[in-house]
Amino acid sequence: MSSRELILGRVRRALADVRRDDGPYEEAVDRGYLREHGDRSVGRTVGLLAENLADYRALVHRCTDGELPELLARLLAGRGSRTVLVPPGLPPHWLASADATRVQDRAESTPHELDRVDSVVTGCAVAVAETGTIVLDGSPDQGRRRITLVPDHHICVVRVPDQVVSSVPQALERLSPGRPLTWISGPSATSDIELDRVEGVHGPRTLEVVLVGG
User: Where is the LUD domain (predicted)?
Assistant: First the structure.
């Protein structure tokens, strides 16, 4: 008897006295939970997102669409970034004022090549106010998942209020489970048994989020 047959046999014996339920799966569990906590205006929802992002040690900036190129140029220059990784669908005007050399998102790029890049700039799919989370789904303005995990500095642009929702259930409605989803709550961080925090272990050490309105 193979290991597979042995395991399946044990499963069948365990289920032998379980009553068969032919009801629809979606009715098996009551899912009448809250879709969001509280009743907030759009402005308060965006404010909550900014507050929770900052609580996770992300650096939060606000600007209008017209101010975005100058702001991105200042953020890159302030960090001393000489190279910036660019997803294929990033709007060209975003980096029109930046002096950093553009590095394209290429399938053949090695982890060592990506590690030599100073910064990466992306858009996002959606941002969740209640958890201070930004979600990437690999769309053209976000690129491959790895380009936001290897470089040490990530600038993520969030369009407000269009890309901001209150809760995770609302975010899931906007996302496709067939896409490579990356959920980011602050810069990469972990801690050892003594609770000493270490940043940049499995993602960027510095996360900057730009909330763009107007």
Answer: 98-212
